[in-house]
Inverse folding.
């Protein structure tokens, strides 16, 4: 392919709208263009990358026994009413009406449509297991679209849905998908980590996310390098330390004057005690009214865990005015003693004694407060946020906390959709049962962006050959030199015969401009044909991340290129 024939508008300037490197580079390299907030066009170069990701995904899905279908993007409201999600999904679901005033939505995911598809068609256990997938656009009216195609509103996803007769079979399918996902992201050349994850809007029994490790990732994950435990911090656990004061006798509760001590640090240094002795009490507003939650003074509370424990849609830290209203005291001095709210206690404080807690009164704390003695506990639960170095819940080794980009997410759904929508089959005993489902998503566009986020330098993108838009950047320096052009044409053919995709820079531009673009586009191998070298039968070859080019015989260039690409794949 010649650059002069491909629509490839590159940018010198860094676009102001872009925050993260992949977004900047995708715009600069002419891969994507914005149409509206979170809505993008893929240009030829970008689309080549997307197609390569899709191809890897397709091959692995097919190899895992899944079959490709294509479901509609516009979905009737009735299906969503059947599943109960028309009410539940919230403002991310873009709802619309047709000319007859019938309600529809743009599919953010396809559980309803697929369940409706198989319902009535799958009649017997003999038709199972079945796994169907598609690669298609989704629409989610994200509250803050950003990072280009990484968090878009319209984006491409591979979504697969499995149907099994029972749990063991469904778990085998889940495991097969898990393995297929590992192969997919490996083949895409990504450094990734599968982690245990929350199920969110999709629901279900358990799930894993596949995270591409990158500092700019929106997710935080905890990883134990010793035993392999890995989880999104939304639900990551840590082994609790022994409860503070657990082996002491209960001392008498006492209110003390602690002037100006709004934070744990201030209280602990004023009272000359360890921050671990202090228990923080946080007041939350929830749809079911205000609640109090307690964690040790040196810990952070994990709002996701609290939300899950309370089984509510949201829990927000209460405003200072509300805290005053609920507890009678100012923010920073809340405590569980005599409070008129249900108290949720982090499991690390279970069995703790003689704690320091707020007194619900300005500049005052209680010392020697003991759960169950000096205040009532509604529920003990794991409410701590896991941090760097916290002990692994399985083997107690210090864990690592890093950032990741979620590129894939798999769910064991169980029967929630099949039951709600009446997708039943007859088992071996002739008994009617709901299908056991799983669903499995990969953001193909996000995967392409994540690859850039992980592999780039100050000059541009660094593609791994597997998903690079082209393998070789072939650059005759002087396009007006007939010999150079003849050599370039011949070499292009030889490269293509070896199965390599070539982008020939046939523009009549300064060499400096072409070199810059070659780096920006990040094509793994660059071959430069200069008239002087050519007279000796030589060309310059350079890998994208290599410091300096080397001279090679023109005759051997294609073979060397093939070797290089194979070695870096
Ligand atoms: P996130 O937590 O990032 O919002 P999600 O949990 O809502 O993602 P899933 O419903 O699991 O996402 O969707 C499956 C995959 O689709 C994700 O792993 C991700 O790769 C991709 N994806 C989800 N939302 C977007 C988006 N707004 N833009 C691009 N890709 C997305
Ligand atoms: Mg997810």
């Amino acid at each position: 392919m010649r650059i002069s024939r491909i629509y490839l508008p590159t940018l010198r300037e860094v676009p102001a709208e872009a925050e993260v490197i992949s977004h900047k580079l995708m715009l600069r390299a002419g891969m994507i263009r914005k149409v509206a907030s979170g809505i993008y066009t893929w240009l030829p170069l970008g689309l080549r990358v997307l197609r390569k990701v899709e191809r890897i995904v397709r091959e692995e899905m097919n190899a895992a026994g899944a079959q490709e279908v294509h479901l509609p993007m516009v979905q009737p409201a009735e299906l969503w009413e059947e599943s109960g999600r028309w009410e539940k999904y919230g403002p991310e679901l873009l709802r619309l009406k047709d000319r007859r005033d019938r309600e529809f939505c743009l599919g953010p995911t396809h559980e309803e449509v697929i369940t409706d598809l198989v319902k009535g068609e799958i009649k017997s256990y003999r038709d199972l297991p079945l796994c169907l997938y598609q690669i298609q656009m989704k629409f989610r009216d994200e509250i803050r679209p950003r990072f280009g195609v990484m968090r878009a509103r319209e984006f491409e996803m591979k979504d697969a849905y499995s149907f099994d007769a029972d749990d063991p079979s469904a778990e085998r399918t889940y495991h097969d998908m898990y393995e297929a996902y590992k192969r997919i992201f490996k083949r895409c050349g990504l450094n990734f980590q599968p982690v245990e994850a929350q199920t969110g809007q999709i629901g279900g029994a358990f799930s894993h996310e596949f995270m591409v490790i990158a500092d700019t990732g929106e997710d935080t994950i905890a990883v134990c390098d010793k035993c392999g435990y890995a989880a999104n911090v939304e639900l990551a656990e840590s082994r609790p330390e022994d409860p503070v004061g657990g082996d002491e006798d209960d001392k008498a509760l006492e209110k003390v004057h602690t002037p100006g001590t709004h934070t744990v640090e201030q209280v602990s240094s004023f009272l000359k005690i360890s921050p671990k002795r202090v228990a923080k009490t946080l007041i939350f507003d929830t749809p079911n009214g205000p609640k109090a939650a307690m964690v040790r003074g040196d810990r952070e509370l994990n709002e996701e865990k609290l939300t899950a424990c309370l089984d509510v849609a949201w829990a927000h830290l209460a405003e200072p005015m509300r805290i005053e209203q609920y507890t009678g005291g100012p923010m920073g001095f809340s405590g569980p003693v005599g409070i008129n709210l249900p108290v949720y206690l982090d499991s690390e404080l279970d069995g703790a004694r003689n704690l320091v807690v707020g007194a619900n009164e300005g500049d005052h704390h209680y010392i020697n407060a003991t759960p169950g003695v000096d205040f009532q506990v509604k529920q003990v639960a794991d409410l701590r946020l896991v941090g760097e170095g916290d002990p692994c819940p399985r083997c107690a080794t210090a864990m690592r906390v890093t950032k990741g980009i979620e590129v894939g997410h798999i769910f064991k759904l169980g029967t929630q959709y099949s039951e709600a929508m009446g997708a039943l089959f007859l088992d071996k005993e002739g008994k009617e049962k709901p299908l056991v489902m799983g669903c499995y998503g990969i953001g193909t566009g996000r995967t392409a962006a994540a690859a850039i986020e992980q592999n780039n330098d100050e000059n541009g993108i660094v593609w791994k050959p597997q998903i690079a838009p082209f393998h070789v950047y072939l650059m005759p320096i002087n396009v007006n030199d007939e010999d150079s052009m003849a050599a370039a044409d011949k070499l292009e053919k030889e490269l293509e015969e070896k199965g390599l995709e070539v982008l020939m820079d046939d523009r009549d531009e300064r060499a400096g401009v072409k070199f810059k673009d070659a780096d920006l586009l990040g094509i793994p191998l660059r071959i430069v044909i200069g008239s002087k070298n050519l007279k000796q039968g030589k060309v310059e070859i350079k890998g994208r991340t290599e410091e300096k080019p080397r001279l090679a015989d023109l005759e051997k260039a294609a073979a060397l290129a093939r070797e290089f690409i194979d070695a870096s794949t």
Observations:
- The pocket of adenosine-5'-triphosphate (ligand 1) is lined by residues 109, 140, 142, 150-152, 155, 157, 200, 202, 406-409, 441-443, 445-446 (CB under 6 Å).
